[in-house]
Amino acid sequence: MGKGGLLWHVWRKSLLEDGLAVTHQDLPRTTLDTVTIAQVMVALERGYEGYAVPVRFTVEALLRRIRSEHIDLTQSYLFLDEAGEACGGMLIARRGRNARIAALGVAPRTRGSGIGRRAVELALADARTRGDRCVILEVLSANTGAQRLYQRCGFVERRTLVGYERPAQPSSDLPNAAIECKPQRVLGDLLSFYPQDVSWQIAPEGFAGSVPPVQAFRSAAGAVALVEPAGAAMRLLAFAVPPGQRRQGNGRRFMLSLADRFAGMPWTIPAMVPETLAAPFLAATGWRRTALTQIEMDVDV
Is the peptide bond before 213 cis (omega within 30 degrees of 0)? Predict the structure, then answer.
């Protein structure tokens, strides 16, 4: 019997023979630093099978997420069934005294068994042990079942996160204001220009290790941006204008210059942006909100 099978049978014995309540401590699991990235990828894909939005992982994409979102493999888990096989996983990201449940998926065959609830309780218990201040997460607005689970564990709704798209448009014929530079050159500006309370996935800290195909641009007025290809579209990762240069047309000229750099391509921004952040500016520069939204939730620990 493998490690996972042994853990499972110990748990089942305590439940059936001793009448003990099933808690997160009894959840058969292993930390992600003890398995391969390929195993993590397979477990997460199983965990998100049948999800409202198709979720696909590649090793490269998963490694990029681990770097940019600051996922701690020693605090993240694979969950195991009675045969010792992975039946889901949870990614935990950490920055300072804040933690985030970056992904949580349970395979269809084991859903309804309480694994999801115990996984969340495990994440909160670990956070308390580390001395963290809070744990945050995002959940699809349409996923009311998951929202109820998180609420039962103490999470409260904080705000709505939205995404945007910008259709392909012809060149603006304006003088190009977007000058390419090294991604590391714009990090300090993003840290300075961004509000303190942006969502985890668009926070400047996540771009510190940016490598190609991510590209960075700046303007003579000091505006900065990070972009990357996303299939047949371009993804806008970050965009900021110095406070003293705002409301003077600098942001609009810079945005149009970025579009001209990739003329004829549509643009996307994933649903990670607080709905009150830059909404009028984005609308005025040709962006429109997408239908998919997320709810950001948090709990003090």
Answer: yes
Q: Which of 229, 237, 295, 300 is CA-nearest to residue 270?
A: 237
CA angle centred on 104, ends 142 and 66, rounded to 5° = 115
Q: Where are the alpha helices (DSSP H) in the chain?
A: 3-16, 37-47, 59-68, 115-130, 144-152, 184-193, 250-261, 279-284
- State in Å, rounded, how far the first CA of the chain is from the last one: 37
Q: Which residue has the tokens 């530079």?
A: 181
Q: Is the dihedral of CA 280, 247, 167, 277 positive or negative?
A: negative
Q: C-alpha angle with apex 291: 56 to 119, nearest 5 degrees?
A: 45
Largest CA distance in the chain: 76
DSSP summary character for residue 56? -
62-to-50, 119, 258 alpha-carbon distances in Å: 20, 20, 28
8 Å CB contact between 295 and 148: no
Tokens representing 294 are 């997320």
Can you say how many angstroms the Cα of residue 30 is from the centroid of all Cα atoms in its chain? 22
Q: What is the DSSP string of 119-141?
A: HHHHHHHHHHHHT-SEEEEEEET
Task: Please name the residue that has the structure tokens 């997420």.
Answer: 65
C-beta of residue 207 within 8 angstroms of C-beta of residue 190 = yes
For the whole model, what pTM was predicted? 0.89
* pLDDT tens digits for range 219-265: 999 999 999 999 999 999 999 999 999 999 999 999 999 999 998 99
